[in-house]
Amino acid sequence: EPLVARDHAAATELLRASEIPLVSRNISRRLSEDGDSAGVETLVRALAEISSPEKAADVIEGMNLSLGQKKNLKPPAEWGVLYRTLASSKNARLEDGAKKLAATFGGKKFIADLYVVILAAEATIDEKRKALETLIRLGDPQVHAILVTLVQKPGPLRETALRGLAGFPNAKNPSVILGEYPSLSPEEKTAALTTLASSRNGLKELLAALERSTLPKSDLSAQLVRQMQAAGDDSVNQWIVKNWGAVRKSSAEKQKQMAEFRKFLGAQAILEANASNGRLIFSQRCAACHTLHGVGAKIGPELPGNFKDTDYLLLNILDPNATIGKDYQQTNVTKTTGQIVSGVLIDERKDSVSLKTLTGDVLIPRGEIQSMITSDQSLMPEGLMTGLEEPEIRDLFLYLRQSGQVPLPTE
Asked: Could you tell me the pLDDT band of residue 5, with boundaries at 50, 70 and 90?
């Protein structure tokens, strides 16, 4: 990497010679880092000379990793002609990557073409979604009206539109979202809540809906509660403590541990892991409490899968006591015999208490209870990844990313 940063000519030669996708991606990522115009120009010239579609796709993927969050960068002079060639490629990965890169460079015609795709009857849903996501990322103001229309009309682009509204703060957004909320799918509800919690006005309306019980507090995930807390609003934080559960900051030690894990849990590294082996690790370490893709126990919350946020997973696995819903706080019952029973409170009556424990449901008569304390600790233990090697942890994280079940290893 120091060589790449210092000598563009040498980097270009390395790029031409490399047959390893990861090397190509890393060289292009480093050359285009921080929108370095000279590096981007070098890469565009190199792309014009690369005949392999797969290799060109690797180079563009590296550029998108560096430039993906930037908008309206000035494109190199050669880009216009090159883009027309890349975007018409029969290689889907190259075509898609080129369009993402074109979105970063912007341009009025490119934006106009995206609206044509969204409105075209012959365009596929996937093409429409990609065009919509690009307009959202570019922040084009005209797309707001389209997003509102898509939210109010059930369809395959509704979830994308709900997420997209977060980038276009508008006083009418909360009422539009809450008006449609009862009819949303579980995935769409997650998108809706995330968008509501992304603005102070939306957060205010979200809290009002929770108080009216028109929106069930059981719909709030730990991740969303942390997002709500990040707004720094005392009234919101008080509501969370009173109605949802415990939320605290992770210690410096936990933050340091998470930083160490991030070093080998990059997005690309995870995608090259083994999901089947990840399922095996999940069954050994997590399935005693959690259900994922229909397999496992139901002591802790059922997991939806499709987890893409590495930081969210690290926080909840390495520091399970940071965010605990009331339904999953550990309750410790000391019986008159001296026995201590720990679990999740599932029912509390005048004459008995029921706990869900690791060994099953336990009913305890009131007369046998000496004391009962709800802890600020989660029933989920720390140290779940202790003893796992780096490749095994990547396997687990890849399995948690899956939207559906994968087979167990054959050996």
From this structure: very low
Q: Give the 3-state secondary structure percentages of the chain, helix then strand then coil, rounded to 5.
A: 55, 10, 30
How does DSSP classify residue 361?
E
Taking the mean position of all CA atoms in its chain, how far away is CA 30? 24
Host H or E run for residue 48: helix 37-49
Distances (CA, A) of 18 to 21, 28, 182: 8, 12, 53
Residue 353 CB contacts under 8 Å (≥ 6 apart), including other chains: 333, 345, 347, 363, 364, 366, 369, 372
| Residue of 227, 225, 216 lying closest to 325 (CA atoms) | 225
Per-residue pLDDT tens digits for 314-370: 888 888 766 666 666 778 888 887 777 777 787 888 888 888 775 567 788 888 899
**Distance (Å, rounded) from C-alpha 3 to C-alpha 58?**
20
| pLDDT, tens digit, 9 for 90 and up, residues 66-83 | 776 666 677 787 887 788
For residue 121, give both structure tokens.
């009857």
Three-state secondary structure call for residue 336? coil
| Three-state helix/strand/coil letters over 174-243 | HHHHHHHHHHCCHHHHHHHHHHHCCCHHHHHHHHHHHHHCCCCHHHCCHHHHHHHHCCCCHHHHHHHHHH
pTM above 0.70, yes or no: no
